[in-house]
């Protein structure tokens, strides 16, 4: 089910809500455009600074799920990103991102926060566009990305005890400067987990 069905212009479908609504967002035939404000992010440095103000468009999900989105982005500065996200609270969440690196590369990045953020870079991409997928089976989660929406590449699996009902959605961030623009072509959600987290099938 594509949760963007029923959304138009700046009107959301009933099941969708903003956490930190961005100043610029709009639905069109190409999907959802989000231009996040500068200095917005989800990140909890170990015993350090906390940022919890990125723009997350979410729905409440109970039990197992698989969520995926197709994203394309103008990633201007370090940390600019488009992501698919699961969130229980400010201190318990995880995100899988298409992100600009400190040296300008585009890569797939995963961050797991419980309660501090453990982040890891995955493969480099030639272009700032891909599919991102997040899946839950009980308290085990898997992350995958794809270039074509059919062949999924493993990024990460992890365990985290979360409530049965959590927020699941897509978000855009710009931790430092402005200018980032993200288009989420879709946001699809099914109520079952991926069968094999390692193979992605």
Q: What report would you give on this structure?
A:
The protein is mainly β and 201 residues long. It has a single domain, classed as Jelly Rolls (Sandwich). The protein has no helices and 16 strands. The strands form three sheets. The chain has a seven-stranded antiparallel sheet, with no helix packed on it. A hairpin with a 2-residue loop joins β12 and β13. It starts with 16 loop residues before the first strand and ends in an 11-residue tail after the last strand. The model has no long low-confidence stretch (mean pLDDT 96).
Helix and strand topology:
Blueprint lengths: L16 E3 L4 E5 L2 E5 L6 E3 L5 E3 L2 E8 L2 E10 L6 E9 L2 E9 L5 E8 L3 E9 L3 E9 L2 E7 L6 E7 L5 E9 L7 E10 L11
Antiparallel strand pairs: 1-6, 2-3, 3-16, 4-5, 6-15, 7-12, 7-16, 8-9, 8-15, 9-10, 10-11, 12-13, 13-14
Q: How does the major sheet shape up? A: 7 strands, antiparallel
Compute the CA-based radius of gyration.
15 Å
Average per-residue pLDDT, rounded, comes to 96
Quickly give the structural class. mainly beta
Oligomer status: single chain
Q: What is the name of the CATH topology? A: Jelly Rolls
**Strand percentage:** over 45%
Count of strand segments: 16
Q: In sequence order, what are the helices and strands, one letter per element? A: EEEEEEEEEEEEEEEE
Query: How would you sum up the global shape?
Result: globular
Low-confidence stretches: none
The percent of residues in helical segments reads under 10%
By CATH, the architecture is named Sandwich
Integer count of domains: 1
Task: Note the gap between the termini.
Answer: 19 Å
Number of helical segments with 4 or more residues:
0
Give the spatial strand order of the biggest sheet.
1-6-15-8-9-10-11
Name of the level-1 CATH class: Mainly Beta
